Amino acid sequence: MRHRMNYSLSLFYRGSFRELLLLLFAENLIIALSAVIMGIFLLKTLGEPFNIPDKRERKFFLLTILLNTLLTYFGFVFWSVGIITIKLRFNPGIITDFIFLVLIMDVVTWLIHYILHTKPFFEKIHYLSHANKNLNPASLFVVHPIETLMFGFSWLLVLTLFTFNIYAIISYLVFNITLGVISNLGINHITTRNSFSKIFISPAFRLEHHKSGNTNFGYHTKIWDNVFRTLSASYTNFAKNTL
């Protein structure tokens, strides 16, 4: 098994283990900083200020990046030894793979988020995400380490159970980060009603979750909050009409 892993890794990376970790750390750091910069740009466009994260938030922001680096390494190794299989060719199946990824990760993240709010042990972990009532784009990465690992390993589990196209995976990751930034803008700007805002979460949807603490658990869509009746009654119509 070790020989096979080393052989597979050598096909794509010939540096040392330390250099690989530094490369993956740089990748995750760039992704996180790009997400925050995108959020700052959106806030500036809307005429809203960006609340600079305090020392505690910056500490957990960096810790999340470090853990994401470790999770990325695990994913790379799992793929190298054949635990995770990925289709590499560009084909029409990318679209269906992307849709399925959004749907499966939507229910997985909803379930984890629900557990984090309803089970005593996990409530003590998730408090960190609600410590700062003023949401900002950096809040996406200010989470407890155990919570980061829960979401990270659930992602690796999905990739282990199903085979997806690499372009669908990349598209989902871009979609996930973009929607995460938008939902954490911490604003209530109302926009024109559209199909996207009826299905997918919004800044108002996330703000109401942080206000109530027991509604609006969705990370991508409002589907499962509707199905399990956890959608905030006071914000049902309002959230559907927001960015």
Summarize it.
With 243 residues, the chain is mostly helical.
Rg calc: 19 Å
Strand order of the largest sheet: 1-2
The domain tally reads 1
Elements, N to C (H/E): HHHEHHHEHHHHH
| Global geometry | globular
Major sheet summary line: 2 strands, parallel
Mean pLDDT: 86
Structural class: mainly alpha
Number of contiguous helices: 11
Multimeric state: single chain
Estimate the helix proportion, in percent.
Answer: 55-70%
Uncertain ranges? 1-11, 235-243
* Ends apart, CA distance between termini: 49 Å
Secondary structure tally: strands? 2
Q: How would you describe this structure to a colleague?
A:
With 243 residues, the protein is mostly helical. The protein has one domain. Helices cover 67% and strands 2% of the residues. The protein contains 11 helices and 2 strands, in the order αααβαααβααααα. A two-stranded parallel sheet has the order 1-2. The protein is globular, with a radius of gyration of 19 Å. The termini are far apart.
Considering the chains and any ligands shown, give keywords for the structure.
2 strands; two-stranded parallel sheet; mainly alpha; about 240 residues; disordered C terminus; disordered N terminus
Fold blueprint:
Layout: H1 2-12, H2 17-45, H3 55-80, E1 86-87, H4 93-118, H5 120-130, H6 145-161, E2 164-165, H7 166-183, H8 195-199, H9 203-212, H10 223-227, H11 236-240
Parallel strand pairs: 1-2
